[in-house]
Amino acid sequence: MTNIAMPDTPNGSRFGWTKPARREEFETRGKAEGLPTYRVVFQGQTKDFPIIRVPIDLPKYRMVNGRTASLQVEHLALNPDDRRDLFIGDPEMWDAQEAQHALLIQLGRQSELDKYFADPAHKQVDPLLLDQDGFAVNGNRRLSAWRDLIHSDPAKYGHFEHIDVVVLPHATEKEINQLEARLQIEKDIRAEYDWDAEANMMLVKMERFGFTPADLCHLYKMKEGDLQQLLDMREYADEYLRSRGKTDMWSEVSSQEHTFQRLVQSRGKLSGGVGRKELFKEAAFALIDDPSAVGRLYTAIPELALSLDKVTERLAGEFDVASDVHDDELDALFGGGVADNASDREAALAAVLRDEQSLPRAREIIADVLESERQLKKDNKKTGYLLDMCAKANSALTVAAKDGLRPESKLGGVEKQLNEIDARVAVIRAFLAQHAKA
Known about the structure:
The protein is of the alpha/beta class. Helices cover 56% and strands 7% of the residues.
């Protein structure tokens, strides 16, 4: 096997020959007569391109690869000593190709592509698509899997020593993106993108290549609302990761697509001011930290939005949050001004949820409120609902009177709760007086 530490010779690296050597090889092999062809819709036309066989070491990986968009930024976060332009600098560099190879291998294992091709009976079917310089426009994961296999056992996987490729003519970045988008939309055995990788890919195309949201919607056959929701999900996920000291660690949220989708949808329906929405977001983040507290997050997030008033009351009582506390950061962010008392309290509670010491207890309270609301929905369909609720309240107060009257007990807010209990009891007594049989 060729020594991979010799990247300067034409065929001295597993991760691509030099550019002049690649182009010379394409020209030489393209002159052969009777080459088979492969049909590709490219540059607005359906064309038949010749298929040539090249050594597997020849092609280079394409750095602007949607599936690795999240993994690339996470790689840089995990490897601070690597150069910052590893994936956006010169794609010919061997260290960039080596790093991209490792990320593609990781993706291949997640989709079990490595296991599929580990069976020698499973050989190449469709050619890889390369641009004129030999970078893989389509088939990067397959290329990495084949290289890994033949490197591990040259005798067993010798059928991957040469591979079929199609070399596309000169094209603009936009034309390459159009081809990629079309191939990604096709329904076949290709693995679907993780939501965060798709979102990061869209962001890269906008920031680095000047695509507009309208361009992306046209390319990927998306509705504008769906694209905006995806970008909003990414923004919340990015904020969540940064707030937890996990910047760019996208693997932490890859499995939480529905959670962030519900967060975006639910927050958009919330009434009230900035403080209320900030409180909801921080409460949602608290649940994402420990999903076991509430079960399925994609159902707990909408429940949190519906029960936010009760969550607010419980948190305010627990943490003695005054109604006239202002959040200077929020005031500065949204232009100053005096917020109403409710908004001040919600902003203050959001700050409580950002405090590491307060967070565990706050999460317990949120989970308790959500569980209580779930039980209430079940119970309120019963004819004995009123009696059951009174019995539960009586039991809770009995326990409080028996075990809670201790010198060290927290007394702040207790008087307010008792006054509210008295008011509720008065309403129930009035109902009984009106409807009870003589």
